[in-house]
Predict the 3D structure of the following.
Amino acid sequence: MSDEGPTPVEPITATGTAPRNVDGQAIAITVFSSVNWLGRLWLPILFWAATLVARVEAWLGRPPGTLARLSFIHFARWTLVRRIPYNGPPQRKETMTYPRLFFESNFNGGWQEYIDAFSHILTTGMKAFWGTSYGFPQPLPAGPFKEYIKENELVASHFYSAYPQATTTMVLAALKLAPEFKAFKLQNADKSAVDFAEAWREFLTKVQGSL
Amino acid sequence: MSNGSGQAYAFMAMTPVLEGHERELRAYLESFNQQTSPFATLTQTHFARWVIIEDWVNSSAQPTQDHLGSPYLIFTSNLHGRIDDYLDALCNLEQASAIWSHCIGCPTPAGGPALKAYLLHNQLDTGFFVAAYPDASVEQVQASLALREQLIAFTVRSQGMDPTTLKSAFEAEFPDGD
Amino acid sequence: MATRQPPTIDRADIQGDILSAYGNKYDRASYMLIHIDHPAGGQAWLGSLLGRVTNAERWSGPKPETTLNVALTYSGLRALGVAEELLRGFSDEFREGMAARAALLGDYGESAPERWDQPLGSGTGHVLVTIKALTTELLERELTDFKRAVEQAAGVSIVHEQPTQPLQEAREHFGYADGFSQPAIAGVAKHESFADGVPEQEGKWRGLALGEFILGYEDEDALIPSAPAEPLGRSGTYMIYRKLSQDVALFRKTLSEAARFYGHSEEQLAAKIVGRWPNGTPLITSPDRPIVNFNAKDPENNAFRYLDTDAEGSSCPLGAHIRRTNPRDALGWKGLKNAGLLSYRHRIIRRGMSYGPPLPAAASDAQPAEDGVERGLVFVCFNASISRQFEGIQTQWVNDGNAFHLGHDKDFLLGDSSTTNKMTVQGDPPFMLSPQPAFVTTRGGEYLFVPGLAALRFLASGADGTRT
């Protein structure tokens, strides 16, 4: 390149989904699926148990489970919608013969790669959440599962991220790095140049995974 | 219900769209981009979206079908901090007023405490919420990301510096009080 | 997945050099791009080639002196008069073509399609013919015959020719032995260990499903991959042809400057970028020095993986070129049983060849020899899905670093200079390479379809396939 400063071009990693589901490197996935009678009973229990487990693990300081280790999800949620709130006419009172499982996720990487990871690595989890949804094929092979998600997926009209170029791993690295850097600065600001340089080298070695 | 995880909150509201308003509402929502987004001024927002659902998708495995009486506007937000503060700020935005005016039951004027009450009335509680960084505020995330960039740039720049140069370069780049 | 029966492979119907490479002896090669003026002429000419197209059958007697293979662009299929219904069966990305996918592939600035060697990517190129030979004389004889036949045929012309030039010891221009790491395919790979197939537990491997590479066979999802309708799809595959120019002088200069602050040798720094020493020794196998007389072609030397011994990247950096382009188990974490399943659907078969003369070593370090001569790599690969395999590697693993927890760091060897990028060489202390000059520039490329032999006969016959 002959210019002094080429305009930065961001990589394109948010592939495999409609453009409106993308903000920078982040992808929005929004899915509703109809749930059978078993799911109506099972899903609240699953949600309660999963929430409890997550809270206990956080409290115990356990290392993160597989979902977190996959580290491409910023935020995700599942909600069982049993009835739609009523606002009076002309809204029709919605009869929901089947409750609907709502899933939304904000993640990085391609849509295909995301679903593949869920199918292959979180197979049991996928069955637990979607096993009671009508028409749900098994998580594996991933092909039919992807078709199922696509059929039930909605495209966002507007999707926003406060830091669209930052991936989950970058955010986690940055959040880990900030206090470590603050501590380093505090402990070493008054050292001699030689000692400082040595401490800097140790610091870099320690935090290189976050840079 | 678990709307919260740490200090992160998962809000969702689903409101019916007035007949004949769907196209205009959709066009309005689609006109926003990252810079013009109403969420850009709601600094508690990590990730948020508006999605319009026209009707339920019914699987052939279902014995019968469900249909919605109207399209619905789904609003979800993954935010940091108190939901009350967030809704207060959201309901003061003129875009929020413009958006929810297209919905059945929305108060007129569409704003302030009345709009907030409307959204709360239509809130759907979250079942299971997963947050990768449940305690970090948006400002904290952005500041940490910026610091990381700064540190990387400094690390590259300072390679090969002798200790004295390194220390003074460090002090210049990261002055006290930061 | 439980072991499946390896498929019965109709080798006679698949074109050669895909399942198994013809081999380094066929290192005299040329690529020609042909334009078709009208369907009848194109079909007749294609028909005349049919008897000479090399298939995938194993050679039992004497080896052929030359080989010939044929691939078509989407515009080429249209130029041959293929019916609309059949055309719709090809993948979207193939129909759009590589030039239209430039933003996705990171082909901007100097690599943008507007700057490509004409007529690559323009839609004018219809048929890519690859001729390989044992000697230069044989290649030239074959090329002469081929060109004469094109001249005499009506309605076809050669619009682009890309000669190649083998380098010593099967190296590429940056000096690295290349091409021997290929996916092990069930029913194809000769080595029973299936090293470099899908990594499984306890150091074992299994072969990849043939359908990851050849249409009409089951893929890793146990489904037949999406393909054009019979008889076009069967035994076919998609091909990526991508001319990449390499700035060898810039590479050497960058290394020499960066190595000033690196605690080890320039050669080691270069190895850290690539993931191998120049003779092919993987860093993970031998981090401090190359293994003398390393036999890169021995499949057991390709049986390495990363997580057990090098999850942190101190031997082979997390962002090294080969670790990015073929992560093996590196996308997982220690204790994750199925780590290979995060990368196994993004494998490609590579058959590229170098072009241009080698750049001699510099007379002195201060004056790297720059000669302004074009040189580089004609990158060629095969896969059943361009978007999942080739483009997946390019977008998720080469042009970005998130999969490896490296933020937006790009492959230092291939990536470009449009962002303030760096590569971290993990260690005590870590070393950062920055900025990242554009060593490699895309000079042009095509997405192509490689039909099976029966499909080629069909295309040459002019049958439009709508009548059954």
